[in-house]
Fold:
Amino acid sequence: MAREIAFLVFPDFQILDLTGPLEVFSQAERQESGAYLLRTLALEPGAVASSSGLSVNAEAARPFAGADTLIVVGGRGTEAAVADPGYAAWIRAASSRVRRVASVCNGAFLLAEAGLLDGRRATTHWSNAAALAERYPAVTVDADPIFVREGDVATSAGVTSGIDLALALVEEDLGAAAARRVARQLVVFVQRPGNQRQFSVQLTAQRPAREPIRDLLAHIAEHPEADLSVPALAARVGLSERQFLRVFPTETGHSPAGYVEAARVEAACRLLETTDDGLERVARICGFGTLRTLQRSFHRVLAVAPHEYRERFTGTGPT
Structure:
């Protein structure tokens, strides 16, 4: 029997929040006929305009006949939807009639308004995380992950993370091989682990005002295998170690050790995604020295083992 996947949209929604995961399930349906039945719903049926101007033709969300999965999209119109009590009431009622509920991007605000995230860990687009936490103190907001699954409720981060979440749901429904086939067809990564960070350390760092520190960040990214100890980094920018330990966090928002570790983990991730190099070689190339150090850093930064990262990201076993 086909699993019915219902997407809830509203005026000014983000089109990719809908079309990204929708296409994942659509591809899975094409490969395994009868797997899914896809519906796009709105409280007011008919043409619903997205924030980009593209419109979709939505079915009436009332009365809700039930589905396997309800996915609430996000977008610029989320604030207006949250202010309309009809959305939260409908989502609350619908959640009792489906197997699982999910949101994309700031669609998490609608799940929170409906009370579905109370006592749960959740994520949203990084730029909305602080507002979600302040507005809904019963929700444990984590701005880092691509998506968070808490029982029968899932939340995902910004925009394209809806694709990651949809692939994870397809894998749950149809198996890892099916998810890999869909990912290959869409030319996207098989599945980023849900606890992978939304953005790289380079993006999270403040842009340093001092050019030597900007150049240093580029050096760290390009040469993870180099000596990146505090004495070496301080000497490279012409500062004493004491000055460097004060200046670097002020300029970047990160400690030197934390930044270097995250940059090395990102370098290792790229090798795990794109090569079949053994883990010990990856550890050496990326400056960890030993496999044990690589493993500790992966667990600390990504909460996943290197071989698990490679398995889930590429669909291959560890080398």
